[in-house]
Amino acid sequence: KVFLQGENWLREDLCGNFNMSVAGNLQSYENIEKYKDNIKCIDILGHYRDILSRNSKQETRRSLGIPTDRKVGFVSFRKAEEDFSVHRTNDEFLQKTKNMMIEFRNKGYYILCRERLDKDNVAWDHRRGTSNLIEQVSDLIDMKIDGHDGFPSLIWRAMYASDILLCADTSGICSKEAFVCKTPIYMPYDEYFVNNKLKLNFQHHNPLNPVLRNMYDNKLIFNSFDEESLLNFNNKIDESYAAWYNTDVDLFWKEMLD
Question: Cα–Cα distance between 18 and 27 in angstroms, integer?
């Protein structure tokens, strides 16, 4: 059996060529139809929120050493690969991210920042010429975390405890941790990204993650921090989440053991 998180992942009109290559060979949706009876659209990732909600956000903050009397902005500090980045250059990435952090600090937010220290991510930053850029905004950070210890892992607990994700660039943290925790997402993108990256044809050789595309289209990832953006997020998050994550742990185990 093959498990997918929701039925949207079977739709060519939404997913296009995303993850459709095997050993460099593009597969067709005819193969999916051929084996569709072996594909089960059941998610378990969403169960993390159920586990996290056993404790209040305030309790989770206290366990992490985060103030309970301030709003918390969780910064994801990493530049995406060129096909998906909302920024034209590394300098633009740094400046816009710095401006974002200053803006939210001035609003009184406690700035929690993820610093990816594992070997793969350190190598990723080195390849893209962004190594140590985080040091140039260190004076704007109240606490740094990496994110891999514990269960649920630190990244999940920190996301659950935060009021908003301040995402420097396109990242899976939006479509996983923030989406599941239903944490609002701010990102400093502009029309350059919308016109040159977001509108890429689904048949592009390296298309954007369809969940992220859907989140951008529905303004669940927004670039204007105001009441209208937050209201839109709250109005759309449940329906959008349900379209991509069919969370049912009991059904998952029933299918696994059948």
Answer: 10
Helix, strand, or coil here: 224?
coil
Q: Which two tokens stand for residue 199?
A: 């509108």
Cα→Cα distances 32→9, 14, 40, Å: 11, 15, 12
* Closest C-alpha among 98, 126, 127 to residue 113: 98
Out of 96-110, 120-134, 205-219, give the one with best mean pLDDT: 96-110
The total of other beta-carbon atoms located within 10 Å of residue 188's CB is 22
Strands (E), the chain: 2-4, 21-22, 25-26, 39-41, 72-76, 110-114, 143-145, 164-167, 185-186, 221-222
Q: What is the pTM of this model?
A: 0.91
Does residue 87 contact residue 99 with C-beta atoms inside 8 Å? no
Using alpha carbons, select from 169, 207, 208 the residue that is nearest to residue 89.
169
